[in-house]
Amino acid sequence: MVWLIFLVSSGVIVLAAVRLAEYGDVIALRTGLGRLFVGAILIAAATSLPEVLTTVNAIAQGQANLAAGNLLGSNMFNMALLAVLDLVFRRRRILRTAALKHALSGSLAVLMIGMAVLFIMADIPWQIGWVGGDSLLIILAYLLAVRLLQRHQHMAGVSMEEEIIPPGTPSLGVALFGFGLATAALMYVTPWLVRSSAEIAEITGLGTTFIGTTLVALVTSLPELVTTVSAAQLGADDMAIGNLFGSNLFNMFALGLADFFYTPGRFLVVIDPAFVLVGLLGLILTTLALVGNLIRLERRWGMLEADALLIGVVYLAGLWLLYQRGITP
């Protein structure tokens, strides 16, 4: 029964999150926001909402490790999606088409993941109320990153004026209603996903470290997968890649935001030290993705480019390492 609950709740999360991303794109068109900014901020935030809600529900149920593993593991999965993109669209060299446009978002993602890893290890005692100063710094860094991305778009000459709206695009009112409805569905079903995940961790003998980093992170990252592939199919390569880097940025923002929901004290200090390894793997994969998008390697191994193949190998090797460390609860 627990597996059935997990599968059903996972399916609802994926469907609702995909709708949320679609309506988020419509809102962007109707309000006149540029697509480059939308991919890295609005769509990334929309597709990352399952991670946020799952994290909040995990904290409410006393599953701090599951909450952290969900966010940090999602960073790993998002970067692995770049290898998937290269495999699916191997004739278009998709990892090169939007490289310079997302150098900043990729660099900011590296910075914020590095900050999160540092704060988990450093145990900084400063706090305001029950919220840690380290979490507040992560939140501030994200807000500054959004501002930098917005300025970068203007400096790059990317227009934020009204774009041509395709025929049949829903109105702003319909989009707002659909966005709210999808959000409500996610808020209702995520507690079931968290409970079933915790039970699976107990039944299988795997700790919440491994379950949170792999199983839950995989499910909550599926909206990124669907949205990214759909954007690439439409030729919006910059939005596809920006969604992945932007999602990693937003995941770290959510890690800091989680401290507000963990009322016993500072959230980062109660995270198992094993998550430093998860964070470092996400940091390495994000760096590899950033480097792979900047350099122009022409070598391919089979159906994959060399950098995409390296990302896939490191991701799988990281999962194996986490499995070895996560056997004992």
Topology:
Layout: H1 2-31, H2 35-47, H3 49-60, H4 64-88, H5 94-97, H6 103-122, E1 127-128, E2 131-132, H7 133-155, H8 172-204, H9 208-233, H10 237-257, H11 275-294, E3 300-301, E4 304-305, H12 306-325
Subcellular location: Membrane
Organism: Thermanaerothrix daxensis
Membrane topology: Multi-pass membrane protein
List keywords for this structure.
mainly alpha; 329 residues; 2% strand; 75% helix; single chain; A middle domain of Talin 1; 12 helices; two-stranded antiparallel ribbon
Describe it:
This protein has about 325 residues and is mainly alpha-helical. The protein has a single domain (about 1-325), classed as A middle domain of Talin 1 (Up-down Bundle). It is about 75% helix and about 0% strand. It has helices at about 1-30, 35-45, 50-60, 65-90, 95, 105-120, 135-155, 170-205, 210-235, 235-255, 275-295, 305-325; strands at about 125-130, 130, 300, 305. The strands form two sheets. The protein has a two-stranded antiparallel sheet with strand order 1-2. One of its GO terms (molecular function) is calcium channel activity. It comes from Thermanaerothrix daxensis. One of its GO terms (biological process) is intracellular calcium ion homeostasis.
